[in-house]
Amino acid sequence: QEVPTRLFVSAPSAAVLEAAEAAGGGRVRLGSEAISLTLDPPQSELPGNAEICFGTDGYREAGDDFSDACLGYIADEETSPNWQCEDYCLEERRDQWCGTTSHLTTFAVLLAGGGAGSGDCGEGSGWITGSMEGDIGLTTGAAALTFFVCAAFA
Question: Is this prediction's pTM over 0.90?
Answer without folding.
Answer: no
